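Re: duplicated header lines in exported structure tokens

Our pipeline writes sequence and tokens for each protein into one text file. With two proteins the header for the second block appears twice in some exports. Here is an export where it did not happen, for reference. First protein block:
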Amino acid sequence: MNSREGNRPPENLDAEAAEPAAAQNTATRAVRSGEHQVPPHSPAVTPVYQTAPFMFDSAEALVAGFERPDQRGLYSRLANPTVRVVEEKLAALEGAEDAVAFASGMAAISGTLGTLLEAGDRLLTAADLYGGTAAWLAWLVGLLRRHEAVVATYYPDDEIARRQMSAGGAMVAFEVRGGLPAANRLLDSLRLFTIMASLGGVESSVVLAAVTSHKNLTPAEREAQGIGDGLIRLSIGIEEGSDLEADLAQALSRVAG
């Protein structure tokens, strides 16, 4: 036995596994798809492989690794076993032939367009592109819609949203009267909402669209997309709702005053 035998990663991670039947429900696909562990040394849950290179017992095994189409368990920059399981699960859930996971949204966009487009091609896109949770969320929306400092509120609570979501969303956008100076004053007055460059997390956060996600658009372009200088976006975390409402109310009072 090679001296490294006991430390090598499981080479059977790329073993063929039965594809989930099309009739299987979503929960079953989420659990079973993409799992290729083979006994006797197979974990019940796919581990997070925190390594760049993987070891091989022989030159032959190394060559075979590079010849595998998916190059799983070879070099994480090419294909990481953990990431590959995620990709296969997503493909099964979406009913797709395959999926590719990227480290960021911009990486996904660049990879997709770079693969599909050639010199001279014309790309048609929507005009409104990305620029660079609980039931009590309605409390905040109600506060914003009633407050004199707010000129517009954007929250998906119409008939379509009620059909698509069971508990509302965690994102709210609103525009304050007074444009950028008023928006800056509101952000500086918040005590619980964390000012961030992007949104999402267990903590509630706030971002000013005109100087972050849509900074590279001209004022006219932002206005055409409904993004005024006073537009503020909130991501509601898991803190107590009444605390968040109180924080937002006191910050709005400073803007109104």
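Second protein block, exported in the same file:
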Amino acid sequence: MTDHPPWSERYGHSFVAIDFETATSARESACAVAAVVFEDGEVADSYVSLIQPPGNEYDSFNTSIHGIGPSDTRSSPTLPEVWQHVEALTRDSLVIAHHTAFDMSVLRRGAEHYAYEPTEFAFACSYRLSQSHLPEMGRWKLDVLADKFGIPLVHHDPMSDAQAAGRLWLALSHLSGAGHSELLQLHGYRLGRFDAIDYRPFSNAKSSSAKRSKWHDFKRTRRLIQADGSTARMSR
């Protein structure tokens, strides 16, 4: 996968917010998804669908959270069928989710289960950005942040969650007085990449080469200290 062009050329002011719900604790068990297209700060299009999870199996705990059960998805399409509709909205767009570690994992594990290869896309996480930009809050769950910014939310309804994640993404830029590209740069984030071969998380962690360099510097310093200690003992 090649590097994306500069933000302004690639994405402008548009993005797509998504949200998955799952039937069990297994990440491949998607049972619903919603996608909301934002253009210039306004909702321009949307899509929502139930998904039949593998075996149409559910945990009662998950059903108690989102209210979706086996009878709801008995005749629903599977993930590959549904994701093709989402892809029609996300093509060439930045994808936003609140906690991409979860949502991207649901898509990845589901795609693996069905031997399906989604089209690549770039993504960013409103949870991680909120955590970096609003550290004083201490909690960055979607319902907590929606309450702070006055964003309407029916939590764990996929359409409502996706809309709220999108509005939160906009609110963070408005709060900072900076564009999203500047805001991500401020906190050291690079966009995530969803790709079957070259998956990369949305992260502000230093690159592995930088980590290796720090580790080598540490070991070199330690060797010098040990060498100095040995020299001091020998000179006594």
